Amino acid sequence: MKENILIIGGGAAGMEAATQLKKLGLTPIIIEKSEALGGHIAQWDRLFPAFHPAKDVVAPMLDGVKGIDVRLNTEVADIQRDADGFKAALSNGETINAKAVVLATGFDLFKAERKQEYGYGIYNNVITSLELEKFFRTGKDERINNPQKIGFVHCVGARDVKVGNTYCSKVCCTTALKQACEMKEVFPNAEVYTFYMDLRMFGPGYEDLYLKTQKDFDVKCIRGRVCEVSEDMDGRLVIKAEDTLFGKPLKMTLDLLVLMCSMEKNKSIDKIQQQLGIANNSDGFMQNRDMYLGLNGTAKDGVFVAGTCTAPKSLPDTIAEARSVAVEVFNYINNK
Amino acid sequence: MDFGFCLSPSSHVKMDTIDLTTFNRLKETNPDVNTCIACGSCTATCTAGNFTEMSFRRILLMLQRGKEDEAKKLIQHCMLCGKCTLVCPRGINIRKILLDITR
Questions:
Q1: A186 and A64: one domain?
Q2: Rounded Cα gap, residues A179 and A194, in angstroms
Q3: Residue A253: which CATH number?
Q4: Are residues A250 and B34, on separate chains, in Cβ contact within 8 Å?
């Protein structure tokens, strides 16, 4: 009998897990709610730390899933356990039987308007990191008119008890510095500031990017969280922050403010997650079996997790987890 | 907004109006000044810093926040021993930069 493996989510984690499962002789089926594979990473222009085009990474992943059963514009409406494993009812009316389920449902971007003090959705010149990435990709955004002073705010919706997210979103620091450099490339005469609390340059080449940001791109990193944004009579943004290294409050007028939005758990999967009996961890993401040896496992037999559904992760982390989940599933099927 | 009167002077650093001439001149000959990560090694090892307010990391910041006079006042405590240069993890040539600021 065909060993169907149901993979929910067609982003980096889902695609890579499917590719590897196929190589291991199993039959992955990807269920993707949107109209295309690729997930968030397909919306990105270039990747940190080396400004690598995102499409050069996405294209091989798309090649990998060629020949794999992919259902686009489809969601899992209902899932039940049966004697053979799982029985999933899809939104298109179809029913799929599978031996195991891989949740690769990824993240949602924090809704910037929830941090009202930053004025997203109120002031025209406040944009999100994702919108800036779209500008790099398409060259079009009517809010970006040759800005001469640009600010980046780190940790928007992260390390913030008031929005319920106490965790660090991991990738925004490095992304902010990458985007700050790219802004200097597009607008060489602009002054670019980043407002950080800590700069968490955790990966290979990231600290080098930081040095480059300071030395080659003359980006000014100011330690202190922007506390409020307002608009002056000319429609420019006036921001307030404390320079915590200098110990003094600081005021500055900017033409553009970019909010580095955090990752939050993708809540559109909550119902299926509940049916499978998978709890959330204290950060609101899915709880895996344990954080060392059980990264891909869950409390429930036959249900596996990979990628940012369990915590914010970088792309290399996600790909590593997608590959390891394939091995976990393979062992699970063969030891049954 | 400045209405021309207030009870006490504002402590805000007004980034829109500060004078960065000295820092920008310094940056031309010493691009290293941009690479400080404010670790504080220079201040911790500074002999003068044990007895005075001398702090190279702070001097750099003062210049970037338009407090040139205060920075130059602090530099007077420096004895040019160069220990700060030895400990800087970014390899900033601090001793030379201090001399350049006062030049």
A1: no
A2: 10
A3: 3.50.50.60
A4: no
The reply to whether residue A250 touches residue B62, judged by beta carbons under 8 angstroms, is no
Question: Do A120 and A257 have their domain in common?
Answer: yes
Do residue A318 and residue A214 come from a single domain?
A: no
For residue B88, the chain A residues in CB contact (below 8 A) are: none
Q: What pLDDT sits at residue B6?
A: 77
Mean pLDDT of B18-43: 95
Q: Of B11, B13, B16, which is closest to A253 when you measure between CB atoms?
A: B16
Tokens 């090694």, residue? B41
All residue ranges of chain A with pLDDT < 50 are: 1
Q: Which long-range contacts (CB under 8 A, 24 or more apart) does A184-187 make?
A: A184/A217, A184/A218, A184/A219, A186/A136, A187/A146, A187/A147, A187/A148, A187/A150
Q: Do A259 and A308 share a domain, yes or no?
A: no
Beta-sheet pairing, A191-196 with A220-223? parallel
Query: Is residue A281 a contact partner of residue A310, using CB atoms and an 8 Å limit?
Result: yes
- Give the pLDDT score at A90: 98
Residue A124, token pair as written in the block: 């025209």
Residue finishing a domain among A263, A295, A310: A263
Q: Is any Cβ of chain A less than 8 angstroms from the Cβ of B77?
A: no
A60 and A8 assigned to the same domain:
yes
CA B26 to chain centre: 11
- What is residue A280's DSSP assignment? B
State whether A150 and A53 are in the same domain. Answer: no
Q: Are residues A57 and A188 in the same domain?
A: no
Share of chain A above pLDDT 90, in %: 99
> Under an 8 A CB cutoff, do A215 and B34 touch?
yes
Cα(B38)–Cα(A247) distance, integer angstroms: 13
Written as one letter, the residue type at A204 is: P
Predicted pLDDT of residue B1: 61
Query: Beta strand A69-71 with A27-31: parallel, antiparallel or unpaired?
Result: parallel
Q: Name the residue range of residue A191's domain.
A: 112-263
Number of domains in chain A: 2
Which domain-ending residue is among A221, A243, A263? A263
pLDDT digits (tens, 9 = 90+) for A114-160: 999 999 999 999 999 999 999 999 999 999 999 999 999 999 999 99
Read off the pLDDT of residues A2-46 as tens digits, 9 standing for 90 and up: 799 999 999 999 999 999 999 999 999 999 999 999 999 999 999
Q: Are residues A93 and A235 in the same domain?
A: no
Q: Is A215 on the interface with B (CB under 8 A)?
A: yes
